[in-house]
């Protein structure tokens, strides 16, 4: 199945070349010259045509084998024993690009090559097809009233617990997390809220009643088992999830990943109430040595006077919360925000929350093995910003958080 240069070298991806995106695979090369250097290279092209690459130099053992799960990388995109290093260290050829996967009907194809470390000759290659949807899953585009998004329904006999996946600021729709979560036995609605189909491109305000409509749609869906639904969110949408949890009924379990306890960027309206965005503190915006904008401290402290009008009243919420915060998040100070939210709940006698923090992780904590995004375009700032984090620690945080999310929804939505 691989292109052989010399009939004996084989590159294997185990247990199979087909896997789910969030699963670990074992990369193994056999039939090499013993003790000789071999470079392993990985390459993927995302939905915008951006090429991501990683590579690492290994030495074959006395049997002429390299097993990435147990052999240390000597140099390259990572070093040491890193079973999934060829995946998480994939870096874009165009700086400040975040890996984009829009539609999950097709797999992400990661090409892996074994290259002779002495003369650069390609010895063997194989492609890992990293899928998002299990056999029999339905992916249904949603255009219901004002609501726009995609609904994932797992195979088998429902009804299933329902989860709404709110993705980040920047418009459009992101499906990977929603589809991979649906594989675990949930009906998941990936909800768009602007810049998608006929939704406004540049809204002046966000309307919480839109999200209320979506929550109602999901909770009364015949495939969804109530009474309440779950929410999963990240970044700007973390605030939306906290607003929904504070003002709407029928929310049972909310995951907020690197979110903000205050409203940000756009005013948020609910009925006759408007919550203004937190006022940015321009003098706290700095530049990194490489000239990137760093907005980590651009928002006022949540406990300060100027924040008051923008803080979501999460003491009103009756759901359970999982707050996940990266200590090296440079989009904003997620840890301060999460700790403030936890303190507010405690002050009101509410213990129904968990808080998990990740040292050295950056802003975009996503599904396991998603390529690390160190910097990128920020829709609200209008330029490239630094997102923080160190690739290896960030990768480990994504794996840990994914397990945590399964446990949390399993315990509080039932499955």
Model description:
By secondary structure, this protein is α/β, with parallel strands linked by helices. The protein folds into 2 domains: 10-131, Immunoglobulin-like, CATH 2.60.40; 138-414, Alpha/Beta hydrolase fold, catalytic domain (Rossmann fold, 3-Layer(aba) Sandwich). The protein contains 6 helices and 25 strands. An 8-stranded mixed sheet has the order 11-12-14-13-16-17-22-23, sandwiched between helices. Strands 2, 4, 5, 7, 8, 9 and 10 form a 7-stranded mixed sheet that branches. The chain has a 3-stranded antiparallel sheet with strand order 1-3-6, with no helix packed on it. Helix 2 (176-182) links the parallel strand 13 (160-166) and strand 14 (187-191). The protein is globular. The model is unreliable at 1-6 (pLDDT under 50).
Unreliable spans are 1-6
The N- to C-terminal Cα distance equals 39 Å
Query: Which CATH class of the largest domain is shown?
Result: Alpha Beta
The largest β sheet comes out as: 8 strands, mixed
Radius of gyration, whole Å: 22 Å
> What is the chains' assembly state?
single chain
What's the CATH architecture of the largest domain? 3-Layer(aba) Sandwich
Structural class by secondary-structure content = alpha/beta
Number of E-type strands? 25
CATH level-3 fold name of the largest domain: Rossmann fold
Across the major sheet, the strand order is 11-12-14-13-16-17-22-23
Give the averaged pLDDT, no decimals.
96
Number of separate domains: 2
Count helical runs. Answer: 6
Question: CATH-wise, what's the superfamily of the largest domain?
Answer: Alpha/Beta hydrolase fold, catalytic domain
Organism: Tetraodon nigroviridis (Spotted green pufferfish)
Domain BAAT/Acyl-CoA thioester hydrolase C-terminal: 207-414
Protein name: Acyl-CoA thioesterase 6
Domain Acyl-CoA thioester hydrolase/bile acid-CoA amino acid N-acetyltransferase: 24-144
